[in-house]
Structure formats: C-alpha cells, structure tokens
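Need tokens for this chain, all 121 residues.
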Amino acid sequence: MTNAEQLLWRHLRAHRLCGEKFRRQHPIGPYIVDFMHFGARLIIEADGGQHNGSATDAVRDTWLRTRGFKVLRFWNDEILSNVDVVLEVILGDIAERFPSPPAPLPPGRGEIADFYRYGFL
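Here are the structure tokens for all 121 residues:
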C-alpha cells in the first residue's frame, strides 16, 4: 500500500466514521478495490498520477457502477495533505445512503404502560 492508502486505512480501520466497517484490497469481479463499504455499496480509490485520465479506470468505474457501487477517487496528495476533508466526504456519502433513524418517541409514549393504560394488556 502507498503512504496515502496506509494513512486512509488507519482512519477507516479504526472505525472513525461513525463505526462504519470498511474492507481493504477487496476483490470484486475482475477487480481489486482499495477500500469498500459493503452496506453503502461504496468504493474508495486512492490514486497516484498514473491514474490521471486513465481509460482503464473509466471502464472499471463503469463496471462497478452498473453493479450498484459508487466510486469515490482521491489523489494520494489530497489524502496526505487533507485527510480530514477526505474523511468528511466519505462520511457525507455514507450519511446520504444511511439516513439517520427517526427521532425517538417522547417520554411516556409508546411504553408498555400505555398498553396497560388503554387496556391492550
């Protein structure tokens, strides 16, 4: 792994993104992706200069998108110099895919006592 991949993996592995679980160097079909989150169907790629405008990456991204995955690509220098911003982008994408649960009922509502009170038990 590159220095950028190691840095990003340290953050992802430590579950610093709301406890979300990522895998690294995971095979999907004919490809091995840098990082992935199965539940969010999110793939994260850390790229060096060799990926600039790569036709191979475009084909790969298209193949992954047709299977329901979203691909986020970050440059190595972007990860090394702004890892907090990169993590915010990743977390924002996960939050879009997993909206927060509804607010809990106010105290005294929906409790077992209500079932007794209204004669359901």
